[in-house]
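step 4 of 6: structure.
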Amino acid sequence: MISIKSEREIKLMREAGILNYLTHEEIKKHLKVGMKTKELDKIAYNFIIAHNAKPSFLNYEGYPASICVSINDEVVHGIPGNRIIKDGDIVSIDVGVELHGYHSDAARTYIMGNVKEEVKNLVVNTEKALYEGLSKIKEGAKIGDISEAIESYAHKHGLSVVEELVGHGVGTNIHEDPDVPNYGKKGTGITLKAGMVIAVEPMLNLGERYVYMHDDDWTISTDDELPSAHFEHTVVVTKEGYKILTGEKCDGEE
Ligand code: MF3
Ligand code: CO
């Protein structure tokens, strides 16, 4: 079932989204070569709790941390631990925040120091692919319009699309209907309506699209061990387009 959020609910989800944005900013402030990924998890946990909110991912289906930190060939769901961030790494950080009973979901990938040109391009183009997908959103458009825009942008830039994981609806649950795949055909899938809230999250690979799950039952990595990048925003569909809920607070916004 796909829920349509009321104006009141959108307002609450925007508050959860702003806190998600601020958590990312807090992580960015501390993110440095030489630190352990579990230090970032602690920073995020403390920040979210201090704002009377909850980390959405903690204990979600048994997930043992507040954020996901996925490095290089790790695509998503890397569990923070003793791994040390190195110069030349790309680091994907995924944050979920629950406030007033509503969730928000957003991810970014950071370039740490001296990263090869082709890997930098992977990161830059994955973020651009997210915005290509978002640009198709408005009432009356189809989910497949988003999917095709992301896939064609990725392929145009020589990148492959992970198919095993998809974007999703967001609301009182972190994962709701509908699925939002990063591959597909325009004009197909469900029709978007104003008030639907979805997380769009391309995961693009420098090499082939194939991935596997680690023995920890969470971390997903590329089969060919080439790097992967991930960007995600939670957005609400409007009559004219969309509004990013996990973006920076604008001037004049209450
Ligand atoms: N943002 C992630 C996603 O949509 C959520 C991580 S799920 C968790 O897939 F279990 F790792 F928390
Ligand atoms: Co998500």
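step 5 of 6: annotate
 - The helical segments are 7-30, 37-50, 117-134, 143-156.
 - Residues 7-244 form a domain with the Creatine Amidinohydrolase fold (CATH 3.90.230.10).
step 6 of 6: archive
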